[in-house]
Queue: 4 jobs
Job 1
Amino acid sequence: MTELPNQQKMTAPPRATVFAVTSGKGGVGKTSIAVNLACEFSRRGLRTVLLDADLGLANAHILAGMRPTKTLCDYIDGTATLADIAEHGPAHVKFIAGGSGVQAMADIDAEKRQRLVGAVEDLRPFCDVVIVDTGAGVSSNVIDFLGAADHVILVTTSNFAAIADAYGIVKVSVQNGHKQPIHCVINRVRTPEEGEQVFAKLLACTKQFLGFDLNWLGVVPEDGCVEGAILKRAPFTEAYPGSVAARYLTKLVTALISKVQKTTQTARAAH
């Protein structure tokens, strides 16, 4: 992937597809999915940026085995450009780290929040895919990033509270005028059928009560290699490429590739 230029030089037409990875509840593996999706997109030859937008509790860099020298805090403060804070990560992904344990990032005002959302647009001309790892829940920080994405990837598990919170984030998004596709990933399943059953329940609720259709993306099975990769501070698709979780993760990217190609072709046709 080419280097990100300074913002003042960002004049090329938009082309990247933006995927926001989100969840209603913390602890469902959202960030792990986001990091590994980014790595797999990059391995497919797509110039990929991962933006850690879990403001105040960012930890994508930990799962990627990175020690960032600059973060979105520096960008918000105006002491660094996007080019300054984008660092090389595994699988040639460009990582933009968020602020971890920084209360000022968790409590940013609407103006600063919109500047961060604008950063997503600024990245579009210089890559093929942008993965935005949002925070969990229904805060304004999360909803604004979901609205800036072309596609939302909703991660949940079969845990009842996680399913309820996943419905909650869809509800709040729809109430805020969300129109973009929402693709569901059921993580840590014991069988693919378990994931399909969870999705069926969630879809029934969103259709009945919200009039909104969710898209089925797939599952990632429970796999000890995922925890092993976390302990190694590495994406599981890098540390254990032959693992069950890695194989299913590649299926998710295969399903999403057509979304990238369609968006890219549409952007080129428009210019």
Job 2
Amino acid sequence: MTQVTFEQLLDAGCHFGHLKRKWNPKMAPYIFMEKNGIHIIDLHKTIEKIDEACAAARQIAKSGRKILFVATKKQAKDTVAELVKAVGMPYVTERWPGGMLTNFTTIRKAVKKMSDIDRMMSSEDFLKSISKREKLQIERERAKLEKTLGSISDLSRLPAAVFIVDILKEHIAVAEAHRLNIPTFAIVDTNSNPNLVDFPIPANDDASKSISVIVKAVCDAIAEGAAERKIDKDNANEEDLEEESAEEENNVREDKDTEGEEGEDGRKKRPTIKRGPAKSATSKRN
């Protein structure tokens, strides 16, 4: 698993926290020092937390489950969408729809509605039977659904974990994940409470470079877990094929054995019964 170096985090500005007057006292274990009224994050602890988060994300991906990424901040949405899309994970970068997790069945209905509109618009008979105004209204509704729910169209069940950028901005997502006991990963700045998430990563959550470095590390771990899952599947399929071939060989041998017991005319030979020596007439009389 590729590890993030101290220099990479330093170049990305991951060590810059918020002003001292805005800090959260629960972030004290992750703060290295104060400089010019700004808290500096201890990057050695950041590396430790990144390694823990990457190991957990790798195991989740290896099990075939999904991690939902949430980043609606302007400086994070494009970067997160690009990185997460490459590993095939769902993400929310526009707006967190209320009840996304706690009311998941309703969200799935909206996604199904989007697919129904696609199916409806693909039929030529339907397009001929409606007016231009109705067609325009349907296209607008489809675009609205695509903007908010298009990135989670493949999410058929609740995610195994949620990765959040800035837990203060995405407090609703954090609350919903807690209510459903879904593990949470998050980039936490000096103004956040790290105890609200299961895998906090202390770092600057405002700089796009800082967000990019951390999210890329997690995505690389997810890609490694997915690759391991594929290798395990291939090995399991090979073992199944070997077992099937072995069973076929045994069946062929059994068939050959039964064919050897048949006579020249194709009929099975009757088992020969050994008889003892014929008794003489004198013995019967006696």
Job 3
Amino acid sequence: MNRRVLLGAAVLLIATACGGGETPAPTSAPAPQPPADQPTEPPAQEGYQGGTVSDGGTISGTISHSGEVVGPIEVVVDKDNEVCGDTIETLQIVKNGAGGLQDAVVRITDITSGKPLTELGTEFILDQKDCIYAPSVLIVPVGSAMTVLNSDGILHNVHTTPFDNAPFNVAQPGTVPEITSDPFTLPELIPVVCDVHSWMNATVVAVDNPYAVLTGLDGSFTLTDVPAGTYTVEIWHAELGAQTMEVTVEAGGTATLNAEY
């Protein structure tokens, strides 16, 4: 036999006996996949859910102020006197003879479902008339914008200073009777001022549910179609601040909530 053949065979035998040659690295098995037709869990929905309320209840009451009577603040007008006049009187706390507090915001803060948000309306208008903002407090649901009118026909500058929403700072000359803000996206209290007339101020109350209302001339309020449950109700006034109360609403019933500053 050829000597070279014998030598090659001997080398092959030695290599085999000594474990020569590389063993292929093990491969990891692919992670198991769910069947294509297996349903997946939908993502959780966040935020308030509006719909039909069956056998809802009512929260009603009166917000009052027992402190000293606060007189109007007189502002001396230093520009646009032909429209604004020489002085403007503003009332910071408005109440009737029985102490009923006007323009307090009463709202549920921890409700997750109930009647549609559109129950608050579809148009939210802040007017500039006689060099004041009217109304001084405007409730606007998230997802909606604010329309600002210029009934004075002079230059105003509408300026909001929010923390969580987009700011709005727009000059509105007399030739522009109407401007519109961006839709509000998060609930918060938003101050509004006029950079031309320093005494002009208002508050936009952006809310994420429809259970919010302003008290009337006598301090009374009513929240309707409230699903049965226990809720936190916040009362807020521009000059007097906020306080909270807990209220339980029974199906088809009426819960009374009275608060005093």
Job 4
Amino acid sequence: MKSWTLRFEPGEGPAWMAGREATVFAELGAEPAGKRVACCEMKTSVAEEGGLLKCAFDVRAALEVLRTESYRLPAKPVTRFLPFHYHHIPGGVRIKIGQALEALQKQEFPRWPIDPSGDALRWLLGERGGRWPNGKSFALVLSHDVDTAKGMKLSRKLLEIEAKHGVPAVYSFVSATYAIDKPFLRDVIAAGGEIAWHSDLHDNRIAFEDEADIRRRIDAARPFLDEFDVRGFRSPSLCRTPLLLRIAGERFSWDSSVPDTGPGGGCATVQPWRIGKMLEVPLTLPMDADLVFRRQKPVAWAGAWLDKARFVREVGGAAVLCTHPEPHFSGSAPAWAAYDDFLKRIKDLDPWICVPRGIDARFKEAA
């Protein structure tokens, strides 16, 4: 799909677009009359006349391309083709493979760690963000994907750090792979947190099943989903297809499988939106896995998260963090120290700290 670059004129557009560009997937029509607000090379793409913005392209359709990621084919991880579960490969070895693959990546869009393309389009549509409870300018969601039995055991340390700072989090569990520590899940809920489903098997295949098999896998998890009032979903390794998200929307109130930028694409917006009745809460802070694959040590993680959170605050969106309490990701003393440091420093930015069902309720109130 062809794209072009939108640049705001100096002094025009939102302040957070200064020095940044937006990638637009849309046909560019005749130049609108009026004062130039934004351009594509030397051609006016957005103009202002009489206090109204006029665009040379279909802004809403361009935003939908990003939200649905229809500018790309769904990325299929090589792990789904292995004759055995990829977790049988030691975590340290998987890290080395991930780092090697990351070094070979040539993804030009979306840019990492910030790509404002979708939010620039939302701004043109008048969707300016920042309308969060208690006058807060942005929301913060803390989430953890518990992929294995080791992650299950190490999750309590994250909960202890959150209790120290008095903040809730959402924990996503794989329901048919390891023994679920039900007392721990109840402790998460008692602390104001939320439980989400991370599929039945972390095999990276559910997104690429046919409709009947996706439904079968969700139906098989119903005892777990019902027991813990599970309303949210995140696909393993963020593998996602339009079919999976459509079917997930029949059972779940919210999904958080789409990043704003990477891996394998992204929506390029830090604002949640609806997919039918289901709220999509995009992942917007760099995942611990992304940072590890980019060879960043835990001592640098809090700074990376805070840098992105400052951008999210400017836009008025939702800063959504995902970590994994696995030994090779966030299940170690240096990673715990980074998380503790982040929770201490993020309060200076004054976010509305919530779980996804809180954002879903907020959006329903505003509808």
